[in-house]
Design a protein that fits this description.
heterodimer, A: mainly alpha, Histone, subunit A, two-stranded antiparallel ribbon, 3 helices, B: about 500 residues, 3 domains, 17 strands, about 40% helix, about 20% strand
């Protein structure tokens, strides 16, 4: 894996809609590089013969029957929202997305 | 800002279009993909949700088994291979339509792949569209942009979010690049989406109402000069949500791309927004790289394995595919290609099938639906099936004509009576006093009068020009106010003239 550089961090910050100062970008680039290096050590332990895993337990097909369960009222749904209007969450407009 | 366009004809002279479609199908399961909240359209905002749909900390998704079965059925109906093993992945993006900050989707392991769909164009030409994959995912919440001038996202002050749709099961069907459609590309686009919609509706796995967003289409268009193999740069027009709009959007993008290429500029790879009012697209955002979504396997869900037994069990439940059914019905009814296509385009295939089942012959059923009812439906601006003509009514009307009780002209009058709610055909015949005059005496009187009035015609018929008889028959029908049996009138005229 290529090392994380400052441009990568700036790009990630933009994807995550996080504003970062020049200093923060510099610091984060260094910190993330250390983290990525540490994670990289996993590839030393697991060779090519070990398949990538997304789940530690070898289970498949854990299903739920298509039966309706509990729901929230609109009031409950919105109880933790910073702002709401007419039963809906009110959020700042975010441009240039679809 | 209006983009420059070339005329469609000029664009086709210079360039060869390549299409691609992503069609999202909302499944009509009772509950959501990963939560037991109801999957219902049109309820009060934020009431068909629970903690999973709102992405609260610590919640765990559980897969809806029916949604998996529906997805496999869609894959089979699209002639896809069904993956023996597949898994879900997180597609990460930060936008308020998904409270989790990721959409649970499938990435490198879709449940269905490598399929095809044979599409019939309006003139009967068959066109094969290759299916790359069909994968499962969840729908996002619905945003309403408030403030600003237009209600569109540009210039909005804030957005309101309803998460009722959040987590509704989706199957996204992705085609391979579609080459070779040429000037029929817009028509093919419409026909492809119509075929997908028909299939999922026929399977019973989706309500398939485009106006409700049950079936949504993103259309990719690129152009390349004739003879070049390499694809041009594509645009992706999002959420084109009616069949007519799909056709128009593809046509517009072809014309717009052609103008860009003609000016010597490269096409920008971007998403475009479709505007039904102006039938144009406007620039959306630059397309994100797949890398930007930082897909990774969903750690909260275990893989799905589809045993071959399970797949075959599901295959056995599939209804007859719409295209195969059309083929069978055409053969059964003995209609020509043109006759059958007219029936399909007029939207009366089901009605004719029911009318035949009620006892009419295929010819009689077609004569009534295509000859009489379709035109009346058009005038009333409704679908023919919505006029409320029962198959039994047609059988009854036809029987009356065959028995000689009424003639064809009267039968259409009776049909109008039925549509006006005046009762059954028998009641209307009675009420309106419609009956064929079967006593020969008044007919002979009318015939003699007509022959006397047109001696030249009488001579022609005597001289062997039998087709001249129409003028006399017409006069007699007029004299009897259409109540005579035209066949009998003809016989009597010939008899009278000794021919």
């Amino acid at each position: 894996m290529a090392a994380i550089n400052r441009d990568d961090v700036a790009h990630l910050a933009q994807l995550a809609h996080i504003e970062m100062s020049a200093e923060e970008l510099d610091r984060m680039a260094g910190e993330l590089a250390v983290i990525v290096d540490s994670v990289k050590s996993v590839s030393e332990a697991a060779g090519d013969d070990v398949p990538a895993t997304s789940h530690p337990i070898p289970l498949t097909n854990v299903f739920r029957e298509d039966v309706v369960g509990h729901t929230f009222t609109a009031e409950q749904s919105l109880s933790g929202a910073p702002d709401a209007y007419e039963g809906r969450f009110k959020v700042p407009a975010i441009l240039d997305e679809d | 800002m209006t983009d420059a366009t070339l005329s469609f004809e000029e664009a086709m002279e210079k360039y060869d279009p390549v299409l691609g479609f992503e069609v999202h199908v909302e499944l009509n399961t009772k509950t959501k993909m990963f939560s037991s909240a109801p999957n219902v359209f049109g309820d009060e905002p934020n009431t068909n949700v629970n903690e999973v749909d709102l992405g609260m900390p610590g919640v765990l998704p559980v897969v809806n088994k029916t949604a998996i079965e529906s997805s496999i059925k869609i894959g089979l109906a699209l002639n896809c291979k069904i993956a023996e093993r597949c898994r879900f992945a997180r597609k990460n993006y930060f936008y308020p339509d998904t409270p989790k900050n990721f959409q649970t989707s499938q990435y490198d392991e879709p449940i269905a792949y490598d399929g095809y769909l044979d599409i019939e164009l309006s003139d009967g030409t068959m066109f094969r569209v290759e299916i790359e994959r069909a994968h499962m995912e969840e729908d996002a919440g619905k945003l309403t942009h408030m403030g600003g001038a237009t209600g569109r996202i540009q210039g909005a002050d804030y957005s309101l979010v309803d998460y009722n749709r959040s987590g509704v099961p989706l199957v996204e069907i992705v085609t391979k690049p579609i080459e070779g459609a040429g000037s029929r590309a817009p028509e093919l686009a419409k026909a492809y989406v119509a075929a997908v919609r028909e299939i999922v509706k026929n399977l019973g796995v989706s309500d398939a109402k485009m106006e409700r967003g049950n079936v949504r289409c993103d259309a990719n268009v690129s152009l390349r000069p004739h003879g070049r193999e390499r694809f041009g740069i594509r645009s992706e027009t999002k959420n084109v949500n009616s069949l007519r709009a799909v056709e128009h959007a593809v046509r517009y993008e072809i014309q717009r791309h052609a103008a860009v290429l003609d000016s010597g500029e490269p096409v920008t790879q971007e998403t475009r927004h479709w505007h039904e009012d102006t039938r144009t697209t406007t620039s959306g955002r630059a397309k994100s790289d797949a890398d930007d979504y930082r897909y990774f396997p969903e750690p909260d869900l275990v893989p799905i394995t589809a045993s071959r037994e399970w797949v075959e069990e599901l295959r056995a439940t599939l209804p007859e595919p719409p295209a195969a059914r059309r083929k069978r019905l055409q053969a059964d009814w003995g209609y020509s290609d043109l006759e059958f296509r007219d029936v399909v385009n007029a939207g009366v295939m089901d009605e004719i099938e029911e009318t035949i089942a009620a006892g009419a012959t295929a010819t009689v059923a077609r004569k009534w639906w295509m000859g009489e009812i379709v035109g009346r439906a058009k005038n009333a601006d409704v679908d023919p099936g919505q006029l409320g003509v029962a198959p039994a009514t047609i059988v009854e009307l036809n029987q009356m004509v065959e028995d000689g009780k009424i003639n064809n002209k009267m039968a259409t009058e009776v049909l109008d009576g039925v549509l006006a709610g005046e009762g059954t055909p028998a009641e209307i015949v009675e009420k309106r006093g419609l009956a064929v005059v079967s006593d020969d005496a008044p007919l002979l009187e009318a015939i003699d009068a007509a022959l006397a009035a047109q001696p030249g015609v009488a001579d022609k018929i005597r001289g062997g020009k039998i087709q001249a008889i129409g003028a006399i028959v017409g006069a007699v029908m007029k004299a009897t106010r259409g109540q005579a049996d035209a066949g009998r009138v003809k016989e009597l005229i010939l008899e009278r003239l000794g021919v």
